[in-house]
Amino acid sequence: MKGYSLRRVRILAFLVSLILFSSSCKDDDKASVGKEYDPSRPITLTSFYPLEGGARDKILLDGENFGTDASKIKVYFNNARASVVSSSGERIYAIVPRLPGDDPRISVVIGEDSVIYDNSFTYHVQAQVSTVTGNGEPAFQAGTLSAAQVSAKYLELDAEGNIFMSWRDGGSFGVARINEQQNIVTPLYYVENTADRVLYANGLTVDRETGILTASHESVVDVFFSFDPREAWYPRQRNTQFSTPHGIPNGDQYMNFVSFSPYDNMLYTRSRDGSVVRINPDTYEASVVHNGSRDAGSKWPYGSQYGQAINPARPWELWMTLHSNAVPNEYRQGLMMLDLRPEHINEGFKRMNAVGGSAFRDGSLSEALFNLPKDIKFDNDGNMFVADYSNHCIRMVSPDGIVTTVAGQPNNAGYRDGGPIESQFREPWGVAVNEQGDIYIADFGNKRIRKLVIE
């Protein structure tokens, strides 16, 4: 075995087990035909192999009364569902899911029965950081991925693999499309003179059903812009219509973000005074659904936000980040959440991480600390990724509320591709996640767009 990695040893051992499993299936074909799960008998779990591994690894689960119909068997690692390939009745062949969370327990669910193995599975996170485009120069330049220059702040992706970025530095303002397969960076909106600027884009959102990209106008509450792929993403100004005055003070009409929610198919944006506006993307009708306040004693925090996202696993949850000018002070360095459901929205934004800040601490979300958290985005399983700007790293909040650092070196800025331990970022600002769970990062300090693949 000299020269073989531990992972290769595990793979070889698994293949031997799989061959034996296949042989036993052939020998027992006659006995197993029609062998169904018996709901009158308990499901028994005995052991599983291997005891550790990563995403997409194969695993054998031993026990009794599984039945041979794989379509009726559900296997979970914590709350992450595994793919079930086959079952002999006494052994299930499954695929380990991606990012199951801390200390995953394996459960088997058949019919009304659910049982959990006594031992935990040891899950190994495997991550790799690479550079997509950018060369460290701030002035925007379109072209191939290797030739382009970017100074992106915020990112978003559609279901077709297009990456959209907004920027407002390096002497210009704009929105651009990046496509790895086509090897191209091309502007959708671009101006160099501030006086000519119509759109001052920050956060972006995409309706992944239609592919329509939407950007808020930073300082006019009644205006947003849409980019429709059927029109080659030509920017169009949209003017919202309020049935009653919105009441947001002129000095606080900073609508830095807009997010599409599949919960009600509406767009949501928030002003600096804390007001939340709901916009119908078809009719442009708008209404204030959550009132803000400058009052330091108010439970609606005042202040500029630096990230906003909808949790696709719980699409009524609107999340945002606050830091430098939040009032009261205890809302600074905070991950905040607003429940958009009518019966909960008046409860206001709730701070989800520990009070404190300008610090670094992993662990449970209620105890975690961040240092100027910027953009946030979710994958389809409900994992939230945070661009922790002044900690120079990417953090992940799992659906069960555990915060881990998945790439970058906390408090150690730099530029380096590679695995989670050696990779380095400098002031990461924007994040976006595609359908496969790959994370794209606007590495603002390094003037590059990076890609983080986690398994």
Question: What does this molecule look like?
Answer:
The chain is mostly beta strands and 455 residues long. The chain has two domains: 44-123, Sandwich (Immunoglobulin-like), CATH 2.60.40.10; 127-454, TolB, C-terminal domain (Neuraminidase, 6 Propeller). The chain is 6% helix and 40% strand. It has two helices and 35 strands. The chain has helices spanning 6-27, 29-32, and strands at residues 44-49, 52-53, 58-64, 73-77, 80-87, 91-95, 105-110, 113-120, 122-123, 127-133, 154-157, 162-167, 173-179, 184-191, 204-206, 213-216, 223-228, 234-239, 241-242, 259-261, 266-270, 276-279, 285-290, 305-310, 317-322, 334-339, 350-351, 363-364, 373-378, 384-388, 393-397, 402-408, 428-433, 439-443, 448-454. A seven-stranded antiparallel sheet has the order 1-3-6-5-4-7-8, with helices on one face. A five-stranded mixed sheet has the order 19-23-22-21-20, with no helix packed on it. The protein has a five-stranded antiparallel sheet with strand order 28-32-31-30-29, with no helix packed on it. A hairpin with a 5-residue loop joins β17 and β18 (234-239). The chain starts with 5 loop residues before the first helix and ends with a strand. Residues 1-9, 11-16 and 18-34 have low confidence and may be disordered.
